[in-house]
Design a protein that fits this description.
The chain has 176 residues and is mostly helical. It is built from six helices and two strands, in the order H-H-E-E-H-H-H-H.
Length: 176
């Protein structure tokens, strides 16, 4: 059987040759991380300025459009019978665009879940409005890996290993 080929990215990474070079590499990583943070902060400041500037320009337009939509809605409501051909359609096309009426889908909102469940049970509607969900407790399997690993279809992988570099950062205090 032929040996399996291993592909590499072809990129040459600088590998420190001693502790001194490793310390220098960590320092350079810290310097680069701080510069990245400065640039990202500068970008976020510029974005905030643009959002404020363009937001101020757009606000009066949004307000005008909202007023126009509300006026058009009032007109359409008064003329709905004619515009919808006696309710046969839910839209009307003008030469410049279309207006329409759409029903939003129904939704159920629950406030006080435990009280609602109790009320359903006391009304004898448990089979109709309550469901029982059966699920696998993966946390328990991680706690008892030996037993869980013997179950067919269950495999427990490694937690993995990450390599982290965290350069030290020092905050200068303003003590007098």
């Amino acid at each position: 059987m032929a040996a399996k080929k291993v592909k590499t990215s072809g990129v040459n990474f600088p590998v420190p040759q001693d502790d001194s070079e490793a310390r220098e590499t960590i320092r350079e990583i810290g310097d680069a991380n701080r510069e990245i943070t400065r640039i990202e902060t500068e970008l976020n400041d510029a974005i905030a300025e643009l959002q404020l500037s363009f937001g101020e320009r757009v606000a009066p337009l949004r307000e005008r459009v909202a007023g126009q939509i509300e006026g058009l809605r009032m007109y359409a409501q008064v003329n709905r019978e004619r515009l919808t051909q006696g309710g046969r359609v839910k839209f009307h096309r003008f030469s410049t665009g279309e207006i329409s009426w759409r029903l939003r889908p129904a939704k159920v909102t629950i406030r006080g879940k435990d009280n609602v469940i109790s009320a359903i049970k006391s009304a004898g509607l448990g089979e109709k409005f309550l469901r029982t969900k059966e699920d696998i407790n993966k946390e328990a399997m991680l706690d008892d890996r030996g037993t869980a690993g013997t179950i067919q279809g269950v495999s427990i992988g490694s937690d993995g290993e990450d390599f982290l570099v965290e350069p030290f950062e020092t905050d200068l205090s303003s003590k007098a």
